Amino acid sequence: MSKDTLQFSQFVYQGVDAEKFLQGQVTVNVSKLTADEFRPTAICDLKGRIHFGLWLKRHSAEHIEIVISHDLADEFAAHVKKYGAFSKAKLSAESTLYPAIVDQQASFTEDATQQVDIKLWQSIAIDQGQAWITQQTVHLFQPQELRLHQRHGVDYDKGCYLGQEIIARLWFKAKPKHWLHLITGQGDVPAPASQLHHDVEVVNSLATTNGWKALVSAKPEALTTLDVQILDLPEGLNGDVARAK
Q: Where is the secretion signal located (predicted)?
């Protein structure tokens, strides 16, 4: 497999402080998670931008599975070691997790026989507005810009976590200038983190039989100046991302 091919890694965080530690790190309310799904969430930097894009599955307050892009796995483990040095919980060694389609959603499996081709996973994730973060796109996007709150990956009423002050202010007192859209185009596939316009930045992209498709963070009016087609995202992920007044 090419080093440039998207891959995922899994960690298990276990111990009496597992939930407590993660609660102070991620944008979602960890105590409300279950073992029924991998919930998308993020650890942000102090500017409120996503450092690590994660998926969590909570088996109990002392046993939580974590999925992350493989190219960020070592950096994530170092982050947990630094911030969780005094927590009574331990991060397992990194293990391989496979891309899977579960209930028609891009998800993960530990069973290699159930894995799907990563290009299929990416295609479905892009169509469904399920943005993911890799080394190319760290520190670029705020959770709200990627519609993470519309995917139940941000809880605005939970306690403090990294970047929470800025994220909450953007939600309660302002609104993003850019947010996630699904577009298609012709020609070379634009790379993640590249700009199609100073108000259009690529989050994820994939070649198609007729060109390419991508998730971009953009001002809606900026997209109308480009030679691209704007497609609808699934219900609940279209329109503005601001808090209803």
A: none
